[in-house]
Structures are given as structure tokens and as C-alpha cells.
């Protein structure tokens, strides 16, 4: 017989899932077995709950019984009473041999102290926060189109720009590209300079410079004025 029984939440949740008429039977089946070791005689749905709870109740009762007996005796590392304890004797003629490290064994380095670790982390932080190191990120086609629209580069072939630098790994000469916007500005200048309609003549309203005989025009105007 016991004065108490451990009732787990899992028991309660399982009993709660039973029909109302079976809940009370399951509850008393668990309590009676836990306190007095009585196994229910009547079989039904509540028996399943009892069988579920029984192994845990048995384990708890076994621990309880071991506790009432004072627990497991402490094992002492002493020699058998029938055996004399043999103490090692040092040989006077033998020098103490010191253990040498194995030559094939790597020397174990002392682990860094906590302060050293903190300093190392601070160095890494400073290095990561250094703004002098700019990591290049290749733009998307939409990025390039938006930048061209912002700069007014309406005639630049964005597709050709993307294909060219994607194929060469975004390299400028032998160096890795650092600023794709600068590369686009150079590309736009070369594109505009290469167009056939781009002349160095009269730039007013983008009209082409025409060749006129100004002396003949002047004489013609004077003739009309005197007539």
C-alpha cells in the first residue's frame, strides 16, 4: 500500500478523451492500482487507459520501494577481506622513468583565453566594418534599365551591355569591375559616338551642318535689295 500516487498530465488527457461514462472508471482504475495494486476486473474502454498507465505506475512504485530500503548500497573500492592489499614498492636501483611524448603525436596547443577570443572577434568586426573594401554585386537587367532611364540614355542597348559583361565575368580589362554604373556611362558615351547620325557639325536642334556658298547668297540678297 502507498499513501500517494503520481498522476501525470498524459493520464488526464487520455481519460478526458473517453466517453463520460468511462472516464470515472478509468480514473479509479489508475488510482486503485497506484495505491493498492488492484487490477480492474471489469473490461471496457477504460481498460486501455489503465494498460497505458500501468508501466509508469510500476516504475514509480519500484523507485518508492527502493527508497524505503535506504536506496542502493554504496560500493566501496576496498580489497576483499581475504586478500592482502599489495602496495607497490619502489626499486632502489631503478630510476624513475618520465613519460616522454610520442614523436608522432602533435603537440597540444593551449586553448586561447577568453580575453584573447574577445580581442580576435573585435579584430574581425573592425575588418568587416572597414568601408574601404567595397564588394561588387552584379546588377540585374532591371537595375541597368532604371539607371539608363535616370541618366536619359534612351538609345543604349541594355541587352548588349548585359550580355557582354555577363559573358566576361564582369571584368574591366584584367581587373574585376568595381562600379557597374561607371561602366554603363562609358558604354553610353561609346554607343553615342559610334552612331552614324552623331556629327560634330551644327548642334542646334540636332540639325546637320549644310554647306552653303555665303558669297553667292550675299550678292543675291544685295541684287534683290537694289532692284
From TrEMBL:
Region Disordered, residue ranges: 61-126
Highest taxon in the source lineage: Bacteria
Annotated InterPro entries: DUF6291 (IPR046258)
Domain named DUF6291: residues: 4-71
Ranges annotated as biased composition (Basic and acidic residues): 74-126
The name this protein goes by in its record: DUF6291 domain-containing protein
